[in-house]
Amino acid sequence: MSYSKPKFKEKYGNFINGKFVDPVDGEYFDNPSPIDNSLIAKYPRSKKEDVDNAVAAANAAKEAWGNTPAANRAALLNKVADIIEENLEEFALVETCDNGKAIRESINADVPLAVDHWRYFAAVIRAEEGSATELDENTLSLNIKEPLGVIGQIIPWNFPLLMLSWKLPPALAAGNCVVLKPAEQTPSSATLLMEKIADVFPPGVINVIHGFGPEAGKPLASNPGVDKVAFTGETTTGQLIMQYASKNLNPVTMELGGKSPNIFFNSVMDEDDAFLDKAIEGAVLFAFNQGEVCTCPSRILVQEDIYNKFMERVVARTKAIVQDNPYDLNTMMGAQASNDQQEKILSYIKIGKEEGAKVLAGGEACSLSGDLANGNFIQPTILEGHNKMRVFQEEIFGPVVCVTKFKDEAEALEIANDTLYGLGAGVWTRDAHQLYQIPRAIKAGRVWVNCYHAYPAHAPFGGYKKSGFGRENHLMMMNYYRQNKNMLISYDKNKLGFF
Amino acid sequence: MEIKRVDITEEATALVKKLQGMHGELIFHQSGGCCDGSAPMIFEKGDMYLDDSDVLLGEIAGVNFYMNIDQYKYWKHTFLTVDITEGRGSSFSLEIPLGYRFIVHSRLMTDKESALMNGR
Fold it and tell me: Which of A383, A445, B43, B106 is deepest in the core (most CB within 10 A)?
């Protein structure tokens, strides 16, 4: 079954204070689809004044929203979930058109997961409680969670609706108002969502502004009217945002890059069964979302005694990836999100080859015919080499995996941890001891054990090392969007006696 | 003799000149991973806090090119050439509103360059 490009209006506005408004200076930018580089629509090229308007609207709304009963906030989050679910196909098509990903992924992963994140945080605020501790017979310590106020959120282009749904629901559930800036490569699904939920929240609770990083992102990240900035992106911008936050003494959360190892111990090949089949798919998951995932399992580490047999099957499975029209449900891998992204990936493949990496699969751009000839496609690529090569150390953010072998557990861990990053990792084994000990020894915030690329709403996600700090998803996320009010109450009628 | 570690193409030089006209003094910083990362980013001088953890690789088109020292350890055996490509990123890099991205091409250092770098 195949879909086609969805219909769009000629241009869209920013969503500020409950309605769509034109950018103050009237400038727009063209947003092309990476599938065929055709125009999707024009989006506002916002500047500081637009950001200031959005921040002012959020500040005006924060008092009332922060005092809205949890039951009411939860009901509205659930309403959003229902609206996305009722329009699942429409959201999936817009996502595929804007980002380039295969429709089978947006229909089966991006959009249903987004729905679940809204529902999860709606449920969380109904069930959680503060704390009360009797410190002595006359003294009570009450901990009340209060919202921070206004949150600035800057999200990436790889999972536009899902990343929005990782960030908005917990911030709103905690009682904050939000100014969200989608990536300029993928403004469409956030805009579609605002169209569908324009009347759900009181004006000013959610504001969405579009534009370029230096013109709109920076004024948001450095805005004194914002109480916290949550950012998903790369290290240099992360550092800048922390710098700006330091001027306002604001907290930040950072979800930055990764170079995640996916480790296969020899026991995976003890049997030729369903589990081995799962493990081989687990290795090929580097191609999921065209490799544009911060946790892309971009380094495969295989124990040397199974290396040849195992890689033979991984290469065969990789070569069987169907790369074609992203709107076709049979297509497994779509287009890279932008032209410059494609260029960057190709330049990495080139330096990989120069450094002596051997190409086991792919290694080039992928030429498709018709309109797709203008799209940004890259073949799923496997490079064999060693961990000191730059392709093993840098996040390529494309369908390129680097594979190397290891002798024993110690060497597997040495290679796995020899990286600047610590976001994700995968461990595959049938050995009960390895199942626990290896994940504990890997310096990463999320270790998938005998699975990969699962992102349930109730499992915390976040990085070690240069992959950032703070966590997303899970109940614990709420505390990244709140502050603690401690009320220390004395029921003692007697004075201290000092004065 | 100082070893050259980074260069810039004519097209990229022209874009840098244009940005200098718009923003004044600039610096390049090579970013690390994720989404728009692994790309050279250009900022107004003084916008980004730099210290001993940033290695100065050289000056190109009148702009200092820096990289975090931890990252440099993995990059130092390669020679970098800053170029441009049409496109768009969501970082704060100043060229983005103009419809271009800076991009870095890499090649291995020659034996002679490596020897010079290692002080031999």
Answer: A383
Instruction: Report the C-alpha gap between A234 and A249 in whole angstroms.
Output: 21
Pairing between β-strand A400-406 and β-strand A482-490 as defined by DSSP bridges = unpaired
Name the amino acid, one letter, at A370. Answer: G
- What residues of chain B lie within 8 A of the CB of A375, using their CB? none
Taking the C-alpha atoms of residue A358 and residue A391, their distance in angstroms, rounded to an integer, is: 12
| Cα(A35)–Cα(A375) distance, integer angstroms | 4
Does any domain span residue B25?
A: yes
Alpha-carbon span A354 to A9, nearest angstrom: 46
> Going along A184-343, which residue ranges are E strands?
206-208, 228-232, 252-255, 261-264, 299-303
Q: Which residues of A touch B53 (CB under 8 A)?
A: none
Q: What is the CATH number of the domain that holds B17?
A: 2.60.300.12
User: pLDDT tens digits, residue range B93-120?
Assistant: 999 999 999 999 999 998 888 888 776 5
Between CA A392 and CA A385 the distance in angstroms is 8
Catalytic residues of A, by residue number, are 255, 294
pLDDT averaged over chain A?
96
Question: Average pLDDT of A145-166?
Answer: 97
B79 inside domain: yes
Q: Do A390 and B74 touch (CB under 8 A)?
A: yes
Dihedral of alpha carbons A479, A482, A483, A489, sign:
negative
Query: For residues A208 and A124, what is the distance between their CA atoms, to the nearest angstrom?
Result: 25
Closest CA to A299 of A236, A232, A357, A234: A357
Which residue range is the domain that position B110 belongs to? 6-114
For B119, the token pair is 């002080």
Q: Indicate whether B1 belongs to any domain.
A: no
| Residues linked to residue A2 through DSSP beta bridges, in sequence order | A328
Number of domains in chain B: 1
Q: Which residue of A has its CA nearest to B93?
A: A214
Dist. CA A226–CA A144, nearest whole Å: 22
Q: How far apart are CA A149 and CA A286, in angstroms?
A: 38
Closest-CA distance, B9 to chain A, in angstroms, reads: 15
What is the distance between the alpha carbons of residues A464 and A467, in angstroms, rounded to a whole number?
6
Predicted TM-score (pTM) of this structure: 0.95
Task: Report the 10 Å Cβ neighbour count for B24.
Answer: 10
CB contact under 8 A, A214 and B93: yes
Contacts of B86 in chain A (CB under 8 A): 339-340
Instruction: For residue range A300-312, list pLDDT tens digits in order.
Output: 999 999 999 999 9
Checking if the pLDDT of B1 tops 80, the result is no
Q: How far is A46 from chain B (nearest CA, A)?
A: 11
- Chain A nearest-CA residue for B105: A347
Is residue B76, in this structure, part of any structural domain at all? yes
Q: Between chains, do A158 and B35 touch, taking CB under 8 Å as contact?
A: yes
Q: Both tokens of residue A76?
A: 């509205």
% chain A with pLDDT above 90? 98
Say if CB A331 and CB A368 are below 8 A apart.
no
Size of interface A-B (CB pairs under 8 A): 165
Tokens at A334, concatenated: 């779509």
- A353, HSE (Cβ side, Cα atoms, 13 Å): 12
Spell out which residues of chain A touch residue B30, defining contact as CB-CB under 8 Å.
236
